[in-house]
Amino acid sequence: KWAKFPYLKxxxxxxxxxxxxxxxxxxxxxxxxxxxxxxxxxxxxGPPGSGKTHLSISLGIExxxxxxxxxxxxxxxxxxLLKSREFTRKSQVLLNRIExxxxxxxxxxxxxxxxxxxxxxxxxxxNHLYERSSIVLTSNKSPDEWGELLGDDGITTAILxxxxxxxxxxxxxxxxxxxxxxxxxx
Length: 186
Ligand code: ADP
Ligand code: MG
Fold this sequence. Notes:
Blueprint: E1 2-3, H1 24-32, H2 34-37, E2 41-45, H3 52-65, E3 70-74, H4 75-84, H5 89-99, E4 103-107, H6 116-129, E5 134-139, H7 143-150, H8 153-165, E6 167-171, H9 177-180
Parallel strand pairs: 1-3, 2-5, 2-6, 3-4, 4-5
Helix pairs in contact: 4-5, 6-8, 7-8
Bound molecules: adenosine-5'-diphosphate and magnesium ion.
């Protein structure tokens, strides 16, 4: 239920031969969703085209099939929702769903720098979800670079504290699947 995935791709469509950094065993473990039952978070790191969004969607689909409530948002959308919560009914509805989901997928975490207010709003959401839901974050920057984008040091530490307390970090490969499989006109 819910979710709002940008596209639909399953775990079966996720080709591991391109991913030396992720084993079949690890993928099976992710598919079993034990990490969700234990309220673990997942951080998917890798450059553009490395399969972060695909993998997050696949796991989201898996979770829905098991009866979990799942929401998918990009970081940009999430910040806009948080900022318009007081004024927009639609934002309220979507944020209520996010806050009551078993799994929240936040795609492209550090795409943009946040100001103090945005970092604060984000912190409050993470704090609400902490130990209540699982969060899947995708980012092309590693957590030690997130500080720069979140601005305020205290907030960064507080957010990282919660996100990294129970987390599995997966690094997807450098070589872009999209580039290798790109179609040529000629
Ligand atoms: P990003 O890491 O930028 O989020 P995506 O997950 O959106 O990249 O992947 C870009 C495209 O390449 C998508 O169409 C996705 O399905 C495909 N893709 C990436 N990695 C794989 C993979 N390991 N197996 C199959 N398709 C992949
Ligand atoms: Mg992506």
